[in-house]
Write a structure and sequence with these properties.
Layout: E1 2-5, E2 12-16, H1 21-41, E3 47-49, E4 52-54, H2 56-84
Antiparallel strand pairs: 1-2, 3-4
Helix pairs in contact: 1-2
């Protein structure tokens, strides 16, 4: 967490969490999943008004595609993070 001190007294005035790349991906996935849930619980028909079209099915497909992409990115980031924390011990034999 980043703490910003008050310049006059030195006391913290705000605490801002600093998220990792993986945490940001997981937060995005959670947010998109919530929108998908809302759309599927209360489906709406596609419509056009004054030349503007709203296509809920296409929007849902786009969100599902983004969710799949985020799953792949999370797996890659998680694998990368885990491999960075792995120690390999080896013994050389001559």
């Amino acid at each position: 967490m980043a703490i910003s001190p008050d310049s006059s007294s030195g006391t913290p005035i705000s605490v801002t969490p600093v998220l990792t790349y993986l945490e940001n991906l997981e937060a995005a996935k959670t947010n998109i999943a919530a929108v998908i849930n809302e759309i599927t619980e209360n489906p709406k028909p596609s419509y056009s008004i004054d030349g503007q079209t709203v296509q809920w099915a296409a929007y849902l497909r786009m969100l599902l595609d983004k969710l799949r992409t985020l799953d792949e990115e999370i797996k890659a980031a998680d694998t990368s993070a885990n491999s960075a924390n792995t120690e390999i011990h080896s013994i050389g034999v001559t």
